[in-house]
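Service request form, structural biology core

Requester: graduate student, group of Dr. S.
Request type: structure prediction, single chain
Budget code: on file
Notes: please return the result as structure tokens.

Sequence provided:
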Amino acid sequence: MKKVIIVDDENAGRKLIKEYLEDFPELILLGEANNGVDAVKIINEFKPDLVFLDIQMPGLTGFNVLTHLDELPQIIFSTAYDQFALKAFEVHAVDYLLKPYTKERFKKAVEKLATNNQKNKAQDLTSSLLMDAATYPEKILVQFQNKLVTIAVSEIIRIEAFGDYSKIITSDKTFLSNYGISHLEEKLNETIFLRVHRSSIININKIQELNKYAKSYDVTMINNDVVRVSRGYMETIKKLMY
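Core staff response, request fulfilled:
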């Protein structure tokens, strides 16, 4: 018997896998998740033997999810994007199901479980993922009013410290993150998101202009927000000047 978790941001994708699993009574479904953040929680809680894992999801990509797990189960990727196939096998996935796939193709993937020794390669998998600089999330889940919503990281104009939390500002809304600004700095692409103050991170793609202010600078963003560059972060801004 193998314990199974399904992770897919589309209900139709999860439903199809559950339907195909009916032919495999030895695979016991424990639960499912529709985003990367919840996937980490449920996998670490139930410690399944097998996870059917989507790649492009809100919160964390499938590859990001793997780097946050306490124990690495066997993985069968299930995705609509074929450009990740090579990377999937580089991290020792059992198989790579490209949507839409047939019941027969699903069966072939499951049959590979008996000979796959992915758990023995856990250390190699984790190391290769952590070394991959292309694993920054494209979408994240953030709080808006009384719910969690998905936003594209590219839409973020700036991030502002808010006590132990952070405010994430886009062109039309302000969202609340449960994480402090230093934690968010570690999670975002440092070539795009620059810390310019102990309480401010800016997206360099959203800069409108830079103005000299005494011995420092003010950065005007495309939404006309003005962010002060503190002296300790002056060199960071100067690297953008040519």
